[in-house]
Amino acid sequence: MVGLAAAFGSGAMTNSVAEIEDANCVFVIGSNTTSSHPLVATRIFRAKAKGAKLVVADPRKIQLSLKADIHVRHKLGTDVALINGIMHVIMKNGWHDKAFIEERCENFEEFSKVIETYPPEKVSEITGVSVDDIVTMADYYAKAEAASIVYCMGITQHTTGVDNVKSLANLAMLTGNMGKESTGVNPLRGQNNVQGACDMGGLPNVYSGYQAVNVIDNQTKFEKAWGAKLSDKIGLTIPAILDGLTEGTLKALYIMGENPMVSDPDSNHVQKAFQKAEFLVVQDIFLTPTAELAHVVLPGTSFAEKDGTFTNTERRVQLLRKAIEPVGEARADWEIIRDLSNHFGYEMDYESAEDIMKEIATLTPSYGGITYERLQGEGLAWPCPNKDHPGTKFLHKDKFARGLGLFHAIEYKPPAEVVDDEYPFWLSTGRVHVHYHTGTMTRVSPSLHAEMPEGSLEMHPEDGSHLGVRQGERVRVTSRRGEITVKVILTDRVDRGVVFMPFHFAETCANVLTNPAHDPTAKIPEFKVCAVKVEKAA
């Protein structure tokens, strides 16, 4: 996440996936791991089979909760309060790692003052989790020889997403679960090469390897390498891009491999913004709802039609080899970008994806020792600074990237939007095991489509009874931003007063409803919580 790059690996896992199975405690929060990251879930199940305690915090009953030693269903958006409460219990009982804190961390005193104000009784009122369960979670995590935290977008997609991540980092440092095997803070990336895109500067404030654009030495280095004058201004985030289109200060937009019409919050606002663009270009492998709005569509290639690399959630760079020739008029993304650049007068002379990787290694310290030759087999995990370096299994072994680990004193803040008499239900969104992201690929698969052909709204049976809604009937769901009609599934996977929708389905688009309010630092929207009303459809 932006702002945390220097301390915690830019949203990458501090430890490797394989290490999870040897943890003595695995704390899963904000991640439906079996659904969205099944191979990682396999490692969690193996850890459990070896005797590890499995602690799950999720407002829904997910598959992992069936195997958990303890599963708590905290109220939506109360993650900071829950984590602070766990840390209060740990400190009160003297279970924290005093030597680790003294030798490797700073700002502990200020942090401690805040944690003192979160006794489990207070936290129970905020979160809905019992005092006994808060104490048990603290006991399992703090007393484990090696405890691993696993989280996903249930933690980050909040207006307090950065606070949530920092709180988990606090918990890991408090107990000394950093810089050693089978520990750490381990975010699971939402798509297969999100990590690689961020590593390569796919963020508005950095060049490749998280080198800030507003640091003069970085700017000079890249200007010299590229033979071009570069700006030291931080670029626009997605919310600012949409505002710019709406206000007319931004005229053109180039979208590659993204489907914001389904994936971004407040879809009606997104559509209006795109329709105001004087020139919209979309580069993708299918004609998505976003591509349908474009003035020009450039056909890119799938993973099977190109060479290159992916960098996964554990920082592992893996080599991709072309299996088939591009279909139809499709071309590799790098070729399209190269030719466009040449057309506009900036010459790029790359002949292959490998040529680009050679340049990456010369300009990106964490990728300095990564070559196609060395990526044969299992690949390499960065940082890998030179060609003699074996790659890095886990981060922060002897010291943190910033020197000392920084404790943050974080207060709980409620979500940007809360329920009221007009909008009495809490809505959360997420994924299901059948489909992937906006369904661009999975919904064109006949077998996967047959498994789940349409979207649905999960609702507790008691709420359904109160509304006079039966299983499979349609309901109208309305937020302050829009409304949709969708089939209802009555299930105790969700608690009373809470409803859940997958966001994969354009025709029942959950993001028509979601709140575009975003984290002030990372600019991540609050996909995971907003207020809605639900009525039986006519």
Can you walk me through this structure?
The protein is of the alpha/beta class and 538 residues long. The protein folds into 4 domains: 184 residues, Dimethylsulfoxide Reductase, domain 2; 128 residues, Rossmann fold; 64 residues, Dimethylsulfoxide Reductase, domain 2 (3-Layer(aba) Sandwich), CATH 3.40.228; 112 residues, Barwin-like endoglucanases (Beta Barrel). Helix content is 31%, strand content 17%. The strands form 6 sheets. A 6-stranded mixed beta barrel has the order 14-18-15-17-16-21. Strands 3-2-1-5-6 form a 5-stranded parallel sheet. Strands 7-8-9 form a 3-stranded parallel sheet, with no helix packed on it. Helix 5 packs antiparallel against helix 8, helix 5 crosses helix 9 and helix 5 packs parallel to helix 11. The longest helix is centred in the N-terminal third of the chain and has 14 residues. The N terminus is likely disordered.
Write the layout of secondary structure elements.
Blueprint: H1 5-8, E1 25-29, H2 33-36, H3 38-49, E2 53-57, H4 63-67, E3 70-72, H5 79-92, H6 98-104, E4 105-106, H7 108-115, H8 120-127, H9 131-143, E5 147-151, H10 153-156, H11 161-174, E6 185-187, H12 194-199, H13 216-226, H14 238-247, E7 252-256, H15 260-263, H16 267-276, E8 279-284, E9 296-299, E10 308-311, E11 316-320, H17 333-343, H18 353-363, E12 380-381, E13 405-406, E14 425-430, H19 446-451, E15 456-459, H20 461-467, E16 474-478, E17 483-490, E18 498-502, E19 515-518, E20 525-526, E21 530-536
Parallel strand pairs: 1-2, 1-5, 2-3, 4-13, 5-6, 7-8, 8-9, 14-18, 15-17
Antiparallel strand pairs: 10-11, 11-12, 14-21, 15-18, 16-17, 16-21, 19-20
Helix pairs in contact: 5-8, 5-9, 5-11, 8-9, 14-16
